[in-house]
Amino acid sequence: MPAAADDGMLHDGSLIALRRRLQEDKAAALARFRAARPTATSASALLRTLARLVDGALAAVWRHSGMPAGAALAAAGGYGRGELFPYSDVDVVVLLPESLTNDEAVRGAVERFVAACWDIGLEIGSAVRSVEECVDEARRDVTIQTALLEARRVCGSQPLFGRMRASFDAALDPAAFLRAKVLEMRQRHVRYEGTPYALEPNCKESPGGLRDLQVLIWIARAAGLGRKWRELAARGLLTPFEVRQLVRHEGTLKLIRARLHAVAGRREDRLVFDLQAAVAASFGLEPTKGQRSSEVLMHRYYWAAKAVTQLNQILLQGLEERIVGSGDAPMRRIAGGFLDRGGMLEVERDDLYLEDPHAVLRTFLVFQQTPGLQGLSARTLRALYNARNRMDATWRRDPVNRELFMAILRQPRGQTHVLRLMNQTSVLGRYLWVFRRIVGRMQHDLFHVYTVDQHILMVVRNVRRFFIPEHAHEYPFCSQLASQWDKPWILCVAAIFHDVAKGRGGDHSELGGSEARRFCRDHGITGEDATLIEFLVREHLTMSRIAQKEDLSDADVIASFARRVGTPRRLTALYLLTVADIRGTSPKVWNAWKGKLLEDLFRQTLRALGGARPNLDAEIEARKEEARHNLALHSERPGTEDELWRTLEVSYFARHDAADIAWHARSLWRHVRSPVPVVCARVSSVGEGLQVLVYSPDAPDLFVRICGYFDGAGYSIQDAKVHTTRAGWALDTFQVVSQHAEDGATDHRSLISLVETQLAAALRETGPLPEPRHGRISRRVRSFPVIPRVSLTPDERAQRWLLTVSASDRSGLLYAVARVLARHHINLQLAKVSTLGERVEDTFLVDGPALQHNKAQLRIEGEILDAVAAPAG
Predict the structure, then answer these.
(1) Theoretical Cys-Cys bridge with 465: which of 16, 373, 471, 600, CB 3.0 to 4.6 Å?
(2) Chain mean pLDDT for the chain
(3) Cα distance between residue 475 and residue 578, in whole Å
(4) 802: alpha, beta or left, given left = phi > 0 and alpha = psi -120 to 50?
């Protein structure tokens, strides 16, 4: 075997020098990139430079590793394209003639080559194959097939590489490759949340990322249709305008990914919260009114990803038509200049929208009204994409277009699909210019997990589901109310506008109300319909705030809310929109407890609006009677409840429903004068978690000890009601959830006896209170911390005070607040804990002598702020 002489091989000194030179050259290229204006050109120059540097280093190692003259070294994958991101892997294939594949000396040379590559700092992914092995493995594995599709020779035998290229191309089946890559792309999209708008998108792999563009080039290359966008345009697959857009958005994504690598100092393709601000700073981006610099960066990324998603759809359908002949599907004519081509809506001619701009919105109305249509064809998508300049202010003001848009909203079905399709094709933002401003706008408020436009469309979806019988099992009460509602489109309009003014600064509810009023005026919506839509947008946060923060047993709270709402119709609409809105923020924000609070507020307010004057005595007697009936069903003897009930104040019966009152009586009738704490628990009757009942001789630190136990045991308190009986016993109830329940691994039923035993033991202790746990805070909280806020507001008689605390969520928060209250001898009557993603808003109803003094109030507020501040690091 002809091999290089031993004195030509690389020695340690040579490797060290080569490693140092490669590191210095790479560092110099990165320094030039960091110092240059952040443009797509600077990113492309960096990627080509890094690929050339690696080419040179590999060639040097190859020459001095004793490799046979007949072998070849090929770059594969992204490196094969002649581009290398700062910390990307270097994929190579060592090609050997068939006669040398089993030669021990050659194997030794290959091992020396690979080891030397790592020694000089190249993290290579290597494969050693013959030409036949390349072809065979490519047939079996589409990943290998894709990597070899972009292979290029770095050094070594040109004839061997040419033979591999020719054999590989001859064995390639374009139709099978297309099918495999489309399936692979769909699986990848599912793996990355199925949206370009993820909070921490992977700028390479997420929908709308660089991989979606690479898939198109791979498919085109496999079919021999071209290797560059302009080559595809020459074959009629792209228009010149689409080529410019592809080049522009591909450049944006490459620039962001290159800057991300440079900032992270490692291979990192996710725009994680920890790095978004630093990457934005590397672009020189500054905060704007209502937006952090990181949000400006993400807005730019989302716009590019959205455009890539659109262009991917257009070109992919065009490639399918060219490769597998899907363009030959049977056609059926539809009125208005449209065709049904195999279930896809297609325009009859490419210039339809340019000649008839009304046809833009008519496209979506026809799609909505025609059964069997699955989507828009490539021809239609392209026509819409290229007609965007016709969707101008004159087009938006056109009365015909306004009628068409209202017809879309008033259709009996299909609004969710059509509005999403309009957003994907940029038509919705072109028609509703106010909506365009929030497309791709991030919400770093720790509980929304979607961009504003995606959240709005999710709320529209939730509203529409209330009216669809197939979804009645999801929200039975909402579906019941919706079945009696005559104008679903009103709720759709309110949903579209409820957050449309986000990010402007100021109160987005008020600003959104003004936008909704303008929309109604422009679209001929008058009278009570217009008034209701504006009311819903302005008040869309009110019902949630009152249900989760105020005492619903207080008749004044209900009466005030009833006056604000005014009519049962408004109340019903606001309730439906509120449920849809909360459900549309994040899968983790909604829970059955919040649902119960909202339903309780709805029912109590509805009674007040019906003219029923609050009659607390009658309400309490009705609850007692229902509780007695419940006790009888559990075979309790008559009078079981009497001794306990004689010790309880009216406020206890006002704050608990009949089922809870009966459970308390069943649990405590033997222990009414127990000298030791009694703890009872059961699986919550209103959803996840446990209901825990504590009955004990009252003590100043009783509540804080209970909170301390739950903190140490890993439970989150969602709700607490605190009562002191006439006999001096505390009767406290808690709604708790294990902090391990989110992963589905916790069976709360199995925890009942553990909680009952451990909490009772904790309450018998008399030593110092344990220190609060400072649990880990999430990356998102570290990156976008909530400024802690505390307020103390007296009621009208200054007898009870409403304490509200807003902070980043972490374990031990409620316990830390309770310790402060205990230090100042503040009595807690009611606690409501509202967890909004990774932000908490806790509300406490408190009283105590210290609250009558301004200096004491300030001291208490200051200590609570210190207690809830997120720990450093």
Answers:
(1) 471
(2) 88
(3) 13
(4) beta
Q: How far apart are CA 621 and CA 749, in angstroms?
A: 32
- Name the DSSP class of 449: -
Q: Using one digit for the tens of pLDDT, what is the confidence trace for 360-374?
A: 999 999 999 998 888
Distance CA 303, CA 566 (A): 42
Burial of 412 (0-12, 13-18, 19+ CB in 10 A): exposed
**The two three-digit tokens of residue 513, written as one number:** 């109300």
Give the mean model confidence (pLDDT) for residues 424-432. Answer: 95
Bridge partners (DSSP) listed for residue 722: 732
Q: Determine contact, residues 89/125, Cβ cutoff 8 Å.
A: yes
Amino acid at 538: R
Provide the 10 A C-beta neighbour count for residue 110.
Answer: 21
b/e map of 676-686 (b: 16 or more CB within 10 Å)? ebbbbbeebeb
Q: Are 230 and 375 in contact (CB under 8 A)?
A: no
Specify whether the CB–CB gap between 812 and 711 falls below 8 A.
yes
Task: Report pTM.
Answer: 0.77
Q: What is the pLDDT of residues 495-551, one digit of tens each?
A: 999 999 988 878 899 999 999 999 999 999 999 999 999 999 999 999 999 998 888
Cβ atoms of residues 697 and 731 within 8 Å: no
Other CB atoms within a 10 A radius of the CB of residue 393 amount to 8
Structure tokens at 708: 């301390």
The answer on pLDDT for 483 being more than 60 is yes
Contacts of 249 (CB under 8 A, 6+ apart): 304, 307, 308, 311
Pick from 543, 446, 453, 538: which is nearest to 498 by CA? 538
Q: Pick from 812, 831, 833: which is nearest to 769 by CA?
A: 812
Question: Please, are residues 524 and 409 in contact by the beta-carbon 8 Å criterion?
Answer: no
Q: Which residues in 246-335 belong to E strands, given as ranges?
A: 331-334
